[in-house]
Design brief:
By secondary structure, the protein is α+β, with helices and mostly antiparallel strands. It is built from 17 helices and 20 strands. Strand 2 and strand 3 form a beta hairpin. The protein binds 3'-phosphate-adenosine-5'-phosphate sulfate. This is Sulfotransferase. InterPro entries: NST/OST (IPR037359), P-loop_NTPase (IPR027417), Sulfotransferase_dom (IPR000863).
Length: about 575
C-alpha cells in the first residue's frame, strides 16, 4: 500500500463571469493486492481524499453608452471579489448555513448576517424605481428545497450594479455560487456605502471600478465561516470509506468473475497465456495481453469502409467504475481490433464485448490505420482507455478491412494483433450500406440504378463501394499476406443477431478471455427486432443499439437482387474456401 499527499490547483469558469479556482490538498492511498493460489490475480484500488479551498473571481465586460462624448464607447469593467472558503471535501462543497441563521421568507426584516457562501439561488426581481432584493437560502440538513431565506426591502440599489449587463449576469448565474452580488447589496452596500457613492452619471465606469475594489476589500475583511463540526467530518470520512469499500468489492467482483482464481483458485487468462504472446510491439511497448491460440474452427470473413454514425451506442465516456480506475493502469496499443466489415454488425459486437471486465475499448472509431496514420502510434495509443494487467485494449474501425495499407501498418504495430471481422451476406450488407447513405442524403439515385453499370445487360458496377466491400475474398487476400489465418476470427453477422451468446463465446475464446458473456447477458427486444444487452458496461439498465442500427431497408427489385446474388456467388465460394467456413449466403 502506498500513501501520498499532494497539493494542486484546478479551476473552471461557470460562465464568462464567474471563475472559481480550487486550491486542494489530497491524500491518496493506492492498494495493490496480489492473491496467488494456482494462478495469480491482482487488484488495484486507488482512493483519494481531497480538501479544497475555493477562490472566486467575478468579472464581466459590458458595453456602456454614457451620455455625451463617451457615447457608444466600449468599456471593460472588472469587479473582483476574492474570498477563501474553506470546504470540507470537494464533492461536498462549502458548508451550508445553519437553519436558525435563515429568517423566514415571509417576514421582511433586517439584512441577515452571512455566515457562509451557501446561498444557492439569487432571485433578482425586475428593476423598478425602488428596489427589492430577495435572497433565497437553501435550507440545511435535508430541508433542501425549503425556503428559509431573507427578504430585504426598500434598499436602494447602486447604479453600476443595476446596469443591465450586471443584472443579466446575476440572472445567468442564478443557482450557482454567484449570489455574492446580492450579498453585496444586502449587507455590504447598505452599511458601508451611501447610494450617492454609487452614482456618477457622467463617468460611471471609474466609479464601478472603485466600487469593485471596495467590494473586494469588503469581502476580504469578512470573517471566515466556522469550520464544519467534527461530527460532520467524521461522517464524511465514513462515507468515503464506504465508497472505497464498495469500489473495492465491485472491482473484486469483476476480477473474480473474470478470473476466479481470486476466489476459487482457478486459472486466469493471463496465467494461461503462452510466453510467445508477450512479444514487444513495434514502438517498443510490450503488449501485456497474452493470447491463447485460436480455436481450430475459425470462420472467415472480410471488412468494410465505414464512417459510422456515432450515437449513444458508441460511448466514449467511461462508466463510473471505469472512471474510478482511470487514474490507474496505462494506455496500451490495442491487442485486438475489429477491422470490418462495414454494416456487418461491428458495433453490436464491440458493445457486447465491452461487458467483459477484461475488455476495455474505445467507443468511437479511431480510423488510425486508414486516415490518421501520419499522426503516429503515440497519438493512437493516447486514444486508448487505460487498462490494468490482464485487460485487453480494443478498437473497431470497419474500414480497415478494405484499406490496402492497413494490413502492413497493423502488422508493423504488432504482428500479434488479433483481427476480428464481422461478415454478413454481401447483398444485405450492400443494401444496409445504401440505406445508411440514403438516410443522410435522401436524394441519391435508387439502389438498382447505382448497382448496375448497364441494367439491361446486368453489368454490376464494382466501382461502387457498397458493392466492392462485399467482395470479401479479394480483401482477405491482402490480409493473408501479413497475418496468418489463425490470427483472424470471422464472426457471422447473421448469427450475431440469431445467437449472440454463441458468437460471443467464440470471440472470447479467440481473445483468450474467460467466457463471461453468456446468454444471461442478452434479451431479445421485440420492438427493436434485435438482441439487446440486459446490463451494458457501466449501466444497470437494459440497452439496445441506437436508431442507426437496425434501420428498415427499402424494397429492392427482385430481379436486381437475383443478379446481385449471381455476381457475389463465386466470390462467396472462394471466401468460404479461404476461411474454411460456409456462411450460407447462397
Ligand atoms: N444487436 C443488434 N442491434 C442492432 N443492430 C445489430 C445488432 N446486431 C447486429 N446488428 C446489425 O448491425 C448492422 C450495423 O452494422 P455495423 O455496426 O457494423 O455498422 S457500421 O459499419 O459501424 O456503421 C445493422 O445493420 P442494419 O440492420 O442494416 O441497420 C444491424 O443489422
Amino acid at each position: 500500500m502506498h500513501v501520498h499527499i499532494g497539493i494542486y490547483t484546478h479551476s473552471y469558469t461557470h460562465t464568462h463571469a464567474l471563475h472559481i479556482m480550487y486550491v486542494c490538498a489530497c491524500m491518496c492511498a493506492h492498494v495493490h493486492m496480489r492473491v496467488c493460489t494456482r494462478t495469480c490475480v491482482c487488484a488495484h484500488v486507488h482512493v483519494c481524499i481531497h480538501a479544497c479551498a475555493q477562490i472566486h473571481t467575478y468579472m464581466h465586460a459590458y458595453t456602456h453608452s454614457p451620455p455625451s462624448s463617451r457615447g457608444g464607447s466600449r468599456y471593460a469593467d472588472r469587479v473582483s471579489a476574492w474570498r477563501l472558503v474553506p470546504a470540507a471535501l470537494c464533492p461536498q462543497g462549502p458548508p451550508r448555513p445553519r437553519k436558525k441563521q435563515a429568517p423566514p421568507v415571509s417576514e421582511p426584516g433586517p439584512t441577515p448576517a452571512f455566515s457562509a457562501p451557501q446561498i444557492s439561488q439569487a432571485h433578482v426581481p425586475p428593476i423598478t424605481g425602488h428596489q427589492r432584493w430577495a435572497t433565497v437560502h437553501r435550507g440545511s440538513r435535508g430541508a433542501s428545497k425549503r425556503l428559509s431565506g431573507a427578504l430585504q426591502t426598500g434598499l436602494p440599489v447602486p447604479a453600476p450594479l443595476l446596469h443591465p449587463p450586471d443584472i443579466s449576469v446575476v440572472q445567468k448565474l442564478q443557482g450557482i455560487e454567484s449570489t455574492f452580488i446580492a450579498r453585496f447589496e444586502m449587507e455590504a452596500l447598505s452599511e458601508r456605502f451611501s447610494p450617492e457613492q454609487w452614482h456618477e452619471p457622467s463617468a460611471p465606469d471609474p466609479m464601478t471600478t472603485r466600487a469593485g475594489r471596495a467590494l473586494a476589500a469588503l469581502l476580504l475583511s469578512q470573517p471566515q465561516p466556522p469550520p464544519p463540526p467534527v461530527r460532520r467530518k467524521l461522517a464524511l470520512l465514513f462515507a468515503m470509506l464506504c465508497v472505497w469499500l464498495y469500489m473495492f468489492l465491485y472491482s473484486c467482483a469483476g476480477s473474480c468473475a473474470a478470473a476466479p482464481g481470486l476466489l476459487l483458485g482457478s486459472g486466469s487468462r493471463a496465467a494461461h497465456a503462452p510466453p510467445a504472446a508477450l512479444a514487444t510491439a513495434a514502438d517498443g511497448t510490450p503488449p501485456r495481453l497474452p493470447f491463447r491460440a485460436p480455436p481450430a474452427t475459425l470462420l472467415a470473413n472480410e471488412g468494410a469502409a465505414s464512417q459510422e454514425e456515432q450515437g449513444p451506442e458508441a460511448p466514449d465516456s467511461p462508466s463510473p467504475i471505469s472512471s474510478f480506475f482511470s487514474g490507474s493502469g496505462s494506455k496500451q496499443l490495442p491487442q485486438a481490433i475489429i477491422i470490418g466489415v462495414k454494416k456487418g454488425g461491428t458495433r453490436a459486437l464491440l458493445e457486447f464485448l465491452r461487458v467483459h471486465p477484461d475488455v476495455r475499448a474505445v467507443g468511437a472509431e479511431p480510423h488510425f490505420f486508414d486516415r490518421s496514420y501520419d499522426k503516429g502510434l503515440a497519438w493512437y495509443r493516447d486514444l486508448m482507455p487505460r487498462t490494468l494487467d490482464g485487460q485487453i485494449t480494443m478498437e473497431k474501425t470497419p474500414s480497415y478491412f478494405v484499406t490496402r495499407e492497413a494490413p502492413a501498418r497493423i502488422s508493423a504495430m504488432s504482428k500479434d494483433t488479433k483481427l476480428i471481422v464481422v461478415v454478413r451476406d454481401p447483398v444485405t450488407r450492400a443494401i444496409s450500406d445504401y440505406t445508411q447513405t440514403l438516410s443522410k442524403r435522401p436524394d441519391i439515385p435508387s439502389f438498382e440504378s447505382l448497382t448496375f453499370k448497364n441494367r439491361s445487360a446486368g453489368l454490376i458496377d464494382t466501382s461502387w463501394s457498397a458493392i466492392q466491400i462485399g467482395i470479401y475474398a479479394k480483401h482477405l487476400e491482402h490480409w493473408l499476406r501479413h497475418f496468418p489465418l489463425r490470427q483472424l476470427l470471422f464472426v457471422s453477422g447473421e448469427r450475431l443477431i440469431r445467437d449472440p451468446a454463441g458468437e460471443l463465446g467464440r470471440v472470447q475464446d479467440f481473445l483468450g478471455l474467460k467466457r463471461i458473456i453468456t446468454d444471461k447477458h442478452f434479451y431479445f427486444n421485440k420492438t427493436k427486432g434485435f438482441p439487446c444487452l440486459k446490463k451494458p458496461e457501466g449501466s444497470p439498465k437494459p440497452h439496445c443499439l441506437g436508431k442507426t442500427k437496425g434501420r428498415p431497408h427499402p424494397d429492392i427489385d427482385s430481379e436486381a437482387l437475383r443478379r446481385l446474388r449471381d455476381f457475389y456467388r463465386p466470390f462467396n465460394r472462394k471466401f468460404y474456401q479461404m476461411t474454411g467456413h460456409d456462411f450460407g449466403w447462397d
